[in-house]
Amino acid sequence: MRTFRQNLLVGIVLITSGAILPVSMNHALASAITAWGDDEHALVSKSPTSNDFTAISASSHSVLALRSDGSIATWGGIGLTAPTGTGYTAISAGGLSDLALTADGSIVEWGGYGVQDAPAPIGTGYKGIAASAANNGFVAIKADGSIVQWGAEPFPAPSGNDFVAVSAGFFSNLALRADGSITSWGTGLGNASDFNPLLSATPTGTGFIAISAGYLVDLALKADGSIVAWGDDSFGQISSAPTSKGFTGIAAGHDGQLALAKDGSIVEWGYGALYPPPTGTGYTQVANGWETGFALGADQTTPVPEPGGLILLLTGIGALIFARRSSFN
C-alpha cells in the first residue's frame, strides 16, 4: 500500500533521526512530522499530528520521535511501548529493541531483544547511541570517547577514545573520529569472504563530518557538503547519488537513500524513487525507514533551548549522522 501524508509543518530542527546523539544546539526548534511511503505497520498513517518534535528515528517496523519536553512518542507494528516521563535527550529505533539517552547520559533500552539477554551497559555519561535495525546489535560512545557494543555484535568494536559519532547499519557499523576519519566494522554485505564493499570501500582520509550506515549502502558527508556512497549499486544507490556540493544531511536506508539540500529540500535516489518525498523547501531533519521516509521542518518555528555542542543532522535505518558546529560557521 502506497500512502502519502503530510502534516502541518511548524518549525525547523537541525537534522536528526535513525541513531541519535542528544540534540545539542543553541536554538533547537520543534516542528511537526511529515511521513511518506509504504504504510505497512501504519508507519505513515499513525504518525503524530502535534508540532512539538525535535528529533525522529525510524527503523523497518517502528518510529520514535522526541518531543521538546524530552518525552518519547512511538508508533508502528512491533508493539513496543516507550518509557514514560520527560527529559530524554536522544532516541534510536532498532529492529526489535529501541534505545534512549537520558539527561545524565544513561542508556534506557526496551523491546523484545537484548533487554534481558544482553542488557544495555549501566552508568552515566554516554554521549551517543545507535541501535541496528537488522541484527539487534547496539553501539554507544562512552564518556571517554571509546566505543562499547552489546547484543548481536559478533565483530569487535574499534579501539581508541577519539570517537564522536556512531552509526549501526544492517551489515556494517560506522564510527567517526575527531579528525573526521571513518572506521567501519561488521559482516560487510552478509558474506565477508564473498562481497564486502561496505568494509573494503569505506572512504579513507579525514574531514568527514557525518556518517550514516544503511542496508546495503553506507553514506558519508564531507565538509564541503558533498556525498560519498559505497556498497551495493543494484538500484543506483551509488551511481545515482547526487554529485553536487552543499548538502547538509544524509540518511542511508534500505534501497532508497535520502539527502537534505542547503535550501531544506529533500533528495531521494535508488529504489526509494518509487515513494517520492514531499516537494518544497524548509525541511531540516530526515529519517529513513524501510520503504518509508520522515521529515521535520518548515515555515513556522518554536524555539527549544538546548545547550551548545554537537549538531545532529540526520540518519537512516538504525544509523546516525552528525556534524560539528564548526563545520557550518
Q: What is the residue-mean pLDDT, rounded to a whole number?
A: 79
Q: Summarize the main sheet.
A: 4 strands, antiparallel
| The CATH H-level homologous superfamily | Regulator of chromosome condensation 1/beta-lactamase-inhibitor protein II
Instruction: Give the overall shape, derived from the CA principal axes.
Output: globular
Q: Architecture, CATH level 2? A: 7 Propeller
**Percentage of helical residues?**
under 10%
Tally of contiguous helical segments: 1
**Based on DSSP secondary structure assignment, what is the total number of beta strands?**
26
Structural class: mainly beta
The CATH class designation is Mainly Beta
Strand ordering within the main sheet: 1-3-23-22
Q: What integer value in Å does the Rg equal?
A: 17 Å
Q: End-to-end span in angstroms? A: 43 Å
Please give a structural write-up.
The protein is built from one helix and 26 strands. The protein has one helix at 197-200, and strands at 2-6, 27-30, 33-38, 53-58, 62-67, 72-76, 90-92, 97-101, 107-111, 128-131, 137-141, 147-151, 163-168, 172-177, 182-186, 208-213, 217-222, 227-231, 249-251, 256-260, 266-270, 283-288, 292-297, 302-305, 311-312, 322-323. The strands form nine sheets. It has a four-stranded antiparallel sheet, with no helix packed on it. Strands 4-5-6 form a three-stranded antiparallel sheet, with no helix packed on it. β10 (128-131) and β11 (137-141) form a beta hairpin. The chain is globular.
